[in-house]
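Fold it.
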Amino acid sequence: MIPSNIKDLINALIEKTIQKKAIWDKTSRPNEFKLNFEKGAVTTDFWGDEDGDSVDFAIYNSFGDRIDRSVANRGEPDFQLMANLHNTAMREFYKVDETISSFFVEVNEDKSIGKREIEESPDLPF
């Protein structure tokens, strides 16, 4: 079980991120995101294998030392909370909501939308 102060921190980070007041970065790991503070950082990572999905939340001090880490597997009590943080951080980093909003702007314009990624070659016989 995650200590209550860590749960409170995770909930606060989710809220701050939803309010667009937290800037998440990506780490070198495929699904890990990092939020830097003045006196440390936190990370959230999500991975899965044949045994199921897992998510973690780690806290680092100002020297870069990991000073706390919580891991939860799917089905465990804290999994949903930690997965919610990870999803919220991922959506902020990749600007998911902003991208979707820009699609609506294009869809609602009177002009044609879309573009081919592969240019048609005039040399093709068909």
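The first strand starts at residue 25 and ends at 26.
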